[in-house]
Amino acid sequence: MTAPMDTQVLDRPTARRPAQTRIAIADCDIHPSPKSIEKEVFPFLDKRWQHHMQTYGSLPRHGYQNGPAYPKGQPDAARRDAYPPNGGRPGSDLEFMREHHLDPLNVQLGILNPLRSGQGMQNLDFAIAYCRAINEWQVAEWTSKEPRLKASIVVPYEDGAASAREIERCAGNRDYAQVLLLSRTADPAGQRRYWPIYEAAAAAGLPVAIHAFGYGGSPVSGSGWPSYYIEEMVGHSQCSQALLTSMIFEGVFERLPTLKLVLVESGFAWLPPLAWRLDKLATRMHDETPHLSMLPSEYIRRQVWLTTQPMEEPEPRKHLLDTIDWIGWDRLLFATDYPHWDFDDPQFVLPPKVGEAQRQKFFMDNARAVYADRL
Hints:
The chain is an alpha/beta fold and 375 residues long.
């Protein structure tokens, strides 16, 4: 009989190889969480919004006030061994994160991606205030205390102008490495209401990362709300395909050739067939989008990167290498998704036949290239 998922995790040996025996890595998807919103986030919120939060709470476009509905057996989709011994949510204790994650895996660069950050809230004034508070909290509680970590500028992306102002406010602080959106926006991500975000990010030399999940109000499936957690997880790749297609054909990359886009936590093996289809259609119907001067695949190869977790794991594994060969070994940024349960361990994610030069790019050099201006 198959053991329950939590039993497998709890019984797993905790001893790890010493950090010095592991290759140095960049982890481009780490999720921090406040120990206490009142103690850590409220100091950066006006009294009005503290009262609003305590009295009315946050109102997302989705019905779920506390984020994704599943799995109920694993709150916050967290690893059971990631709960700090002194209490608090997984990802809320910097000292424990050092001991449990950064040191044993030899993480030399970690990108913080807060998920409960006020993005996608119905009350835009509250979203603006809360995103600003989360940005200040990241620096106060994380990056100012741990030089290996870099923050993301979370923006109230349904208000493009306010988002641009927040990017401009934070851009001078090199503790921030990128601008962060979530993939379920109210409208397709390439549409003009979001252009101020991309323009401000490009002007500041900051990559824009779009992470799976969000509160756009639409189901992750293109045909309604799914029944199962598996459908929810697979749906993230559909969201990323839709937002990438929108950004290409709306002309975001044509207008902003220096903009860097990082797609986070939606897989990557879907990219080659999507690009093949887009190239074919764009060639056949170029008269519909004459504002584009390049093929979709050419914009992708010039301006798009993807984080690796969750990695597809085909058998034979050679198919994974074929996929990466098409995407390019310089286009993938390693990520663990710590402290979430579908965490990827760098020791096991690549087949053993991958050469050292490719491993070095995969685990570190690509991230250093993308975030070079902030290191």
